[in-house]
Design brief:
Elements lengths: L3 H15 L10 E5 L5 E8 L4 E7 L6 E6 H6 L10 E3 L9 H11 L6 H4 L7
Antiparallel strand pairs: 1-2, 1-5, 2-3, 3-4
Length: 125
């Protein structure tokens, strides 16, 4: 579901956090539901358990930082069409720290990707 080069970045980010070298990475990948409103902006990955960390928005107006199983997301299939429900957005480019995306999402009640909004928000210190 996620290209290998992005997985490597996410694993590296997780290692930095575990070593207390960095805490506010930019999202590396965007996953979204093909048939719903769910969006995941992910920055870190535990490769042993295939658990990612990032901004999770299930489309219910309450986005939050959380962990998600990539195996579980990959296993979700459309009930009738039997096609994968979650896919990677190849055009996504995480330009801001996760704290900026979180602040914007909390204010809007959804993941915000517009530069005009994100560029006005200062990251957490």
């Amino acid at each position: 579901m996620i290209p290998q080069n992005l997985i490597e970045i996410m694993v590296h980010n997780a290692q930095e956090v575990q070593s207390q070298l960095a805490k506010d990475h930019a999202p590396v990948v965007k996953l979204h539901s093909r048939y719903g409103k769910a969006i995941w902006l992910l920055s870190e990955l535990d490769p042993v358990n295939n658990i990612a960390f990032g901004l999770c928005d299930l489309g219910q107006g309450a986005p939050e930082l959380s962990y998600v199983s990539l195996s579980d997301l990959a296993s979700l299939k459309h009930a009738r069409l039997k096609v994968p429900m979650v896919e990677t957005d190849p055009a996504f480019d995480g330009k801001y720290p996760m704290s900026v995306y979180l602040k914007a999402a909390k204010a809007a009640g959804r993941v915000v990707e517009e530069d005009a909004v994100l560029s006005l928000i200062s990251p957490l210190e």
